[in-house]
TrEMBL record:
<protein>
    <recommendedName>
        <fullName>FAD/NAD(P)-binding domain-containing protein</fullName>
    </recommendedName>
</protein>
<dbReference type="InterPro" id="IPR029731">
    <property type="entry name" value="OSGIN1/2"/>
</dbReference>
<dbReference type="GO" id="GO:0016491">
    <property type="term" value="F:oxidoreductase activity"/>
</dbReference>
<dbReference type="InterPro" id="IPR023753">
    <property type="entry name" value="FAD/NAD-binding_dom"/>
</dbReference>
<dbReference type="Pfam" id="PF07992">
    <property type="entry name" value="Pyr_redox_2"/>
</dbReference>
<feature type="domain" description="FAD/NAD(P)-binding">
    <location>
        <begin position="109"/>
        <end position="428"/>
    </location>
</feature>
<dbReference type="InterPro" id="IPR036188">
    <property type="entry name" value="FAD/NAD-bd_sf"/>
</dbReference>
Amino acid sequence: MDSVIDTEVVIIGNGPSAISLSYMLSGNWPYYTSQSHPNEYLHQRLIDDNVLNKSLVEQDLELLSDGLEGRSINKVSVLFDHLQHPEADFGVENPSTLEWRHRSDRAIDHVVIGKGLPGGAWHAMNDCKEILTISLGSWMQLPDMDIREWCSEHRRESRVSLSTVANYYHNYVKTKGLMKNFKHFSSVTSLQFDEKIEKYRIDGHDSNGNDFHYTSPRVVLATGNCDRVNRLEVPGEDLPFVLHSLNELETLISESKVRPTSDPILIIGAGLSAADAVIATRFRRVPTIHAFRRHPDDPSLIFNQLPENMYPEYHCVHSKMKGKFLSNCGYEPLAMHCVKEIKANKEVLLVNMIGVDDTQLTTYVKVKVSYVLVLIGMKPNLNFIKPKSLLSELGVKKRERINPRSNPIAINTYTHESLVSPGLYAMGPIVGDNFVRFVQGGALAITHHIHHQSHPSNQTLQ
């Protein structure tokens, strides 16, 4: 009989969300530095005599979060971002107003279970040395370790490569002494609540086929949103020249399998990954056809939500998607088109979703390509949660699949605890926080809640 390990917290996933939480659970707590903050109302609450020498973990996060606005639906994520990146949404890179102190007496026993190296899905992009992050480099960093000081590239650009970020996250875990908490190359196969012992039971196996078993009163879902790629589900999608990741595109480019003289590469999708692919192919002057289902002016497109002064390269792609500046540029946009069939002879049939004349008759476009690159998003795999009835109740919309955009896991936004399963927490993309700068607020919320459950005598108004 395999042994069962009991621990205070089990974290499923080992990306930036899980790493941030592990750092805080290890007793590393954030403190306000008392320096002037652009938000005078927030500054005044933080320098109150009653809380000045207290960590944020010991304070009333609901009170501190009150009235703050930002690009997250989760209250503590917005609070943390205001303190870590003051006025970031205005394109300003102000220094952090937080400092970190180690409290060994407040460390909480935990384990982080991940399918690969620390950094999670970022390691799937470890070969992407030329594609840059959407976020500023400083927004990709984790608590108390400046990514630019660590980075050996010393780029002049404000952003860093995807491979740099992957290596930074792995190195962060080593540098901060967290490796002892991480169980690499391991997959969770079952998570369920055991009513007999009133704890969760977590079962799984590592890459060598060895089984493991944990019991814990608290489990954190930090699985991210990159378990499975979304597929077109059309004939021919499994042909060998049809790809589904930026990493595969980088390989094509590095091995010179696509060149300026090649047939066009067809890129499908209207998100940032598709834009990154367009930037990469056009940098190498590879002929590119870009097909996407929506109209370029659709307000839900991410390009229409990004400040142009901060993301000029993405707005350049967006302009081309609208049909601007296309003279002899080797790029052809096919707005409001979707793929109907991919043929073995590398011909792709696309359908115009609105037609081309007043009769609205369906029209088709046939293109000859060298490769097809499908970048239409990804989805989490939470099928290890048992029973299925629990999984179906976790979302904001009951009995619908968890989707970070349309159906995130329903949580208390001040604690990140599930609204339907006490002791089960969620953070990161599966609760709508898709940017690294916001996932750290989720780590603070969870650490805060666990600390006050463990030390009720220190309870704040929260």
